[in-house]
User: Fold prephenate dehydratase from Handelsmanbacteria sp..
Amino acid sequence: MKLTVAFQGELGAYSELAAREFFHADVEVAPKPVFEAVFRAVESGRCQRGIIPIENSLMGSIHQNYDLLLRHRLHIVGEIKLRIVHTLIVNPGVRLGDIRRIYSQPPALAQCEKFIKSLRGVEVIPAYDTAGAVRMIKEENIRDGAAIASAQAAADYSLKVLKSGIESDHRNYTRFLILSKKKAPRSSHAKTTVVFATRNVAGVLFKSLSVFALRDINLLKIESRPIQGRPWEYFFYLDFEGHADDSPCRKALDHLREIAASLRILGSYEKGREADGRVHKR
Assistant:
């Protein structure tokens, strides 16, 4: 029986491409309108896995998904870093000079800013999803507009790729997390994600991070998010090398529990590889 993987967006979205690269295409996918619905689908058991973007190499973190990781009781069980190649997609017969409007998700529009500026007099119109923008220009037969999305979305809706690789920086990657109700199997090349809050005392963040330095544990990322209802207090999300059950990591986390006001392990999982999103046949 194939796994069912929930993702936010329409078929052809980059999240779907990341899911197929991570699971080697042997999955059923379940598009969801919002990120919250991805979490709910996995929690309810309707989907065995979920996939969410957590950060982009050019635009930074997706803060909403950090907040959802804390709000829901799921485990991070994997990651993949997908290279994002944006394409300009139009209805057949539309030429570059015909384009007066470009539709896409705001991060995609921002990542293609240089290309968009090269087209004079073009209006930028945000859409909720990259692939959703492609579906819209087809369904409405828009002849003076284009969408920015993946080549997969163009293939899915039988539209034309006018230009490919229009992102401002070609080293454009999005890191996606895989979510599950169960923990990941132990990996020898693991990383761990935790979230903790500190007490409001001098030097507490320095002490919190020192528990890892004392044991030569490499920190990979730190992200702060405000605690709702407590202005100017923060949760800290931390990625570090190693599995939570490894002796040095376990001792560091025990030490951190003595310092922090709260601590939760979000998951230990295998370090993700970089991948190019291929066009898959339906």
Observations:
- The chain has a mean pLDDT of 95.
- The chain has three domains: 3-83+172-182, 87-164, 190-270.
- The chain is about 30% helix and 35% strand.
